[in-house]
What we know:
Elements: H1 2-27, H2 34-64, H3 74-84, E1 93-96, E2 100-105, H4 116-133, E3 136-140, E4 154-156, H5 170-176, E5 181-186, H6 189-202, E6 206-210, H7 218-230, E7 247-250, E8 255-258
Parallel strand pairs: 1-8, 2-3, 2-5, 3-4, 5-6, 6-7
Helix pairs in contact: 3-7, 6-7
Amino acid sequence: MAAPAVMIAVGLIVGLVIGAGAAAFLLQPAPVTNTVTSISTSTMVSTSVTTAISTSTLATTITSTSPPSTVTSTQTVSATISGATPLPAPAAVTVSAANTALLVLDYGFCYRMAGCNASIPTMQKIMTSARAAGALVIFTNVPIKELANQTGELVITNAVGPQKFLNTSLAATLQSKGIKNLVITGIAANGALLYTGQEACSRKYNVVVPGDTVVGTDYVVGYVQWQFLNAPGCSNATNVPLSPGHATLSSTSLIKWGP
């Protein structure tokens, strides 16, 4: 009886050894072939090239998009813009006092606006000539004493923003007086002057902007006048005098008031 038991035990041991060896063989990693290595190497090279291209593109983008801090001064920007888009010369215009209004916008804030004090004599000149001809003069906000309204002249005090037709009596007043031309001045060049002027163009008024009354930095003054002549609505790129429903750039000495 002992011999068969021993043989069975030996057989079990041999079976376990053979099974373990087979399992180890089956579970070992597959050998890495030259083909796989070649593909991996190619993929790595491709990834490196892509990274290089991305880096190059990024460098180009950064170079071509300079941060604002690289601009040394307002004068530099203004000079660049003026050189690329020169404004035409101010045009001489003659307007009828009977159907023209002078708008004096937001000069109640004159003392706090840079450059405004220097513009007061010019504003006084155009106001005097308009009144002498009998033209309508309209103000927004109570003006400073040097540019004060006279008895009977409308002062709009309920304006809610830079566009002075909004929520005011301006449109109704102009219509009731038969106004066709607007000579527009404004202490905030890129505010009331620009936005009221553009709205006036959209309402088909002939807009005249005396350039020597526009105050602000060189950039703002140039930009606002360029917008009047080139933006949709007021556009009059060659500055044809009194182009119907558009803007004309002029100056106080070139605006004549007819009957």
